[in-house]
Design brief:
By secondary structure, the protein is an alpha+beta fold. The chain has helices spanning 4-25, 31-44, 90-103; strands at residues 49-59, 62-74, 78-83, 107-112, 122-126. It is 39% helix and 32% strand. The model has no long low-confidence stretch (mean pLDDT 95).
Length: 129
């Protein structure tokens, strides 16, 4: 498990890459386009990047193997969820908190590419679980 300092450094790299992708592509595309470009930029930085990672959940005695998929998982420590929405809604933050809880991870980034300036589309979410 990475230290808080390492997670902060990792999130800074991700944000820098997201800003680069947004600077080149701008708003208006599908999340899948941003995902592929961001993953490519992150790999260029030497990071371990997994896309569309299935995460199981347990509901009482039932294990649901494909309950949801993370858009991007970096270094097996940082969840990155991509949006191409008008704005990041409270439900997106609640969703990220659930992802963090069931995955046992501490930090997630919501990146909304449908903004004029990428800085306005970044929300850092920390788990309290």
């Amino acid at each position: 498990m990475k230290s808080e300092e390492e997670l902060n450094r990792l999130s800074s790299v991700v944000i820098g890459c997201a800003i680069e992708v947004h600077k080149v592509l701008g708003p208006g595309l599908l999340e899948s386009a941003y995902q592929q470009c961001l993953a490519w930029e992150l790999r260029r930085q030497g990071l371990s990047v997994k896309e569309q990672v299935p995460v199981p959940i347990r509901y009482k005695e039932l294990e649901v193997s494909n309950a949801y998929r993370l858009d991007i998982l970096i270094e097996d420590e940082l969840i990155v969820e991509l949006k191409a929405a008008d704005k990041i809604e409270p439900v997106h933050i609640a969703q990220m908190l659930t992802y963090l809880k069931v995955s046992g991870l501490r930090l997630g980034l919501l990146l909304n590419f449908n903004v004029e300036v990428m800085k306005k589309g970044i929300k850092r979410v920390v788990s309290n679980f």
